[in-house]
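Protein modeling request. Please complete all fields; requests missing the sequence field cannot be processed.
Requester role: graduate student
Desired output: 3D structure, token encoding
Chains: 1
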Amino acid sequence: MPDLFLFFGLISHDHSFIFLSHMLLSALIVLVLAKVAMSNLRVVPSGTQNLMEAYLGGVLAMGTDVMGQEGARRYLPLVATIGLFVAVANVIGVIPGFEAPTASLNFTLALAVIVFVYYNFEGIRHNGLVKYFKHFLGPVWWLYWLMFPIEIVSHFSRLISLSFRLFGNVMGDDMFLMVILMLAPWLMPTIPFALLSFMALLQAFIFMMLTYVYLGSAVYISDDH
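Delivered output (225 residues):
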């Protein structure tokens, strides 16, 4: 957002530098949270440990609803890490002086590619190459010629769905915040700040949910038809 003050803009006005700085800051915050939560583990959690355990429990419960407890536990590290990273990257954009790295398509597309490659890899690893791609053909043999290209397009469209949904929503939130800060920089943004913080967390939840859904549909293809 070139019209607003950015702390990293004091070092350089180059947008690539500002984007990279905020992305690394988000990663650093996630690492610090994980380190603090694990620095003094207790049977009865408190503080950051309690917060992180509640977060992991919520992600696990969400994954269990999608693909069962065994699958949810298997992919919990990936999904929870991505969700926390996206949530932090979204939330720092709500703080004046910072910009959400998720407002860059490069960031969201990179995450989408990671999820896309990983769930296809897991699908092939669990089911075998032939069986995995065979389920792209659909249940009716005489519709194979039609279903296969539709399935291929459908899977690649998930890259667009994951990346553009997150990018578009965060970019829209940033533009809304910019307008609010220009019109009423002091008291008025209080309510929008709360709303934008909720939306930032909601987008992280949606990204995690879709990741679990894509993983489940790739690994448990025997239940598709």
